[in-house]
Design a protein that fits this description.
This protein has 11 helices and no strands. By secondary structure, it is mainly α. Helix 1 crosses helix 4 (102-121), helix 8 (207-220) runs parallel beside helix 10 and helix 10 (258-271) packs across helix 11.
Amino acid sequence: MGLFLTPWGLGILGLCVGSFLNVVVHRLPKMLEARWQADAAEVLGQTAAANTATTEPITLSKPASRCPSCGHAIRWYENVPVISWLLLRGKCSACKTPISLRYPLVEAVTAGLFVVCGQQFGAQPTTLLWCGFVAVLLAASLIDWDTTLLPDDLTLPLMWAGLVVAALGWTALPLKDAVWGAVAGYLSLWSVYWLFKLTTGKEGMGYGDFKLLAALGAWLGWSMILPIVLGSSLIGAVVGIGMKVSGQLREGVYVPFGPFLAGAGLVVALAGAPTVLGWLGWV
């Protein structure tokens, strides 16, 4: 256990977890889509269910990773975080199709965030809890950015984990603050959603955003909800304007809010509540 809690240990662990997050980000939306299709087919009848079973089921472990262009099975030594991408020069070893730079970036960013967790929370077992918190936020952010979907499979377990660790006293946050943080996180965006919908007739965000902010509240407490919302709104506005000016944001296309919520939550968690409140002049 002690080895994992050193900066080097957390960094190596982060590289491995980052490699797994790449799998989650790629496969979880496909798994959810297959699940929804199966549920719909079950409602429509067994014939429809049989017609949808045309492809091999996808899980986080099966089938084995392959090049999407040529089907080349990725060997273990081609899947070493960051190093393999560099040795392969960012290309498939079989067909030379470029491999997205995002894969090693996710691995490197996860490693860096794990090291920062170690520096912030110290060499203690609860640091691994915060590493898990960081990993889920990163995966949820990337999925939301790619698909505008924040899966319940990530946000709800994250929320319940925050409440459980507070109840067990594994973090410094009292259980009461965690519970009210989850309540305040959900209801704050839920209220904004309905106010916007009733006044404009449009939906300004998804329910996944409510659940993500509830999860952040469960880990960070009710007092951090407003700083998270303010920070995420500011960053989101800047990014949205930048994309609009550069032509990357087309008419009718929305920028997902989840990545900005997660980013603000990460800042609060890794900087610490007193520091964040100091930035805002609320101390």
